[in-house]
Specification:
With about 160 residues, the chain is an all-alpha fold. About 45% of the residues lie in helices and about 0% in strands. It has a domain at about 90-140. The termini are far apart. The model has no long low-confidence stretch (mean pLDDT about 75).
């Protein structure tokens, strides 16, 4: 017989076997191991911050602390960022790493739009600039962190 439907009950693929197999698994899962008894969880203690009967003032008062309160509007002033400047060879390396692909992309566009052909030495110069800049940046990377417990997050 070449049909896909089983002729005899109990053959693999029979829907009655599938139901009995599901029932068997359900009973195994229901009777597996001991079921732990849990105590009911205590009610969480919630501080009602927005209630009207809560005193809005601080629990203590010190005149010196009022001037240094960072939660007052306008009390926190962000520090001035460092100016972006020239960092010597590191800047040259970044120009090589980022500028070489940009010039190569522009050069490819010009070759496609116009029939202008750039000299071969330009290809070598762009490749050397990219590889040299990348090698310099990798070689001058710090080997260790300043603070081994610092995860990099800054506020």
């Amino acid at each position: 017989m070449s049909s896909r439907e089983p002729d005899q009950p109990g053959e693999p693929g029979d829907s009655r076997d599938r139901v009995s197999e599901d029932e068997a698994w359900a009973s195994i899962v229901a009777n597996y191991g001991e079921h732990p008894e849990f105590e009911p969880a205590p009610e969480p203690v919630v501080a009602h911050v927005f209630d009207d009967d809560v005193d809005d003032g601080p629990a203590w008062s010190d005149a010196a602390d009022e001037d240094d309160d960072v939660f007052l509007p306008g009390a926190f002033v962000t520090p001035e960022p460092e100016p972006i400047g020239w960092h010597g060879w590191r800047s040259v390396a970044w120009i090589g790493v980022l500028g070489s692909p940009a010039v190569a992309l522009l050069w490819t566009f010009l070759v496609q739009v116009t029939s202008w052909q750039a000299p071969t030495w330009l290809v070598y110069l762009l490749g050397a600039g990219f590889l040299g800049g990348f090698a310099y940046l990798v070689a001058t990377m710090p080997k260790e962190r300043d603070d081994p417990w610092d995860d990099g997050a800054r506020l």
